Amino acid sequence: MIRKDVRRALAEDVGDGDLTAALISAGNQIQAQLICRQQAILSGAAWVDEVFFQVDPSVDLQWRQADGDSLQENTLVCTIQGAAASILTAERTALNFLQTLSGTATHTAIYVEAVQGVAVNILDTRKTLPGLRMAQKYAVTCGGGINHRIGLYDAILIKENHIAASGSIPAVLEQACKLFPGVPIEIEVENLGELKIALEAGARRVLLDNFSLQQLHEAVALNQGRARLEASGGVNLRTVRAIAETGVDDISVGALTKDLQAVDFSLLFVDGKD
Question: Which of 27, 74, 120, 215 is the most buried (most CB within 10 A)?
């Protein structure tokens, strides 16, 4: 996966060759430092390693920090030794991966911190950058979040239109259990009446879609621990703590992967060698 991610990214940036780096002497060896310019959670080291490896396997990277580490402003993250032309060619692609995945991890960590002390999981969704699903899912775990289903192939999430097309909540749950025994099954409900029907039909995981805080409290009381309850919709940093305190088991947050802000990293050439 990482190899394919990097190959694709280098193809769109380098293409047939780095024309500007060709101006640099092939024998020019340099040391560089990778610096994080802000507080952040690091994620993406393996992608950076792979970028430099595919550009030039002789480039040496020495990591001073690890994925999941909390970084302070102006933290030295990694030192890089090798041909200046190779480092220049790899720089932008490497930083693109690092700033995006660290941004995902950092945003996740903020949500996790917001519900600290409450027995609830912060989950991601399928609202990821195209082509970077697995990379962003990994970054979420670096920030302390939990991966929901990876895609449409590894778990079943029955939503409003699935129910409408199948006829009823009991009918679609029965069909899911019959066709895919052993596969995780979750069903979305939009009100307490649908929750009651889903529970009576044997649902073991239920997504509570855009429930108010009062409805969430009532849903937890109605459930009595029979199913795992996930709150979704209207979740942001202003609301997530109150949602967690209703007693739901999970909160899914699309913003973890779609509303991220890239972390500021710099790669600087320095004098001398280690």
Answer: 120
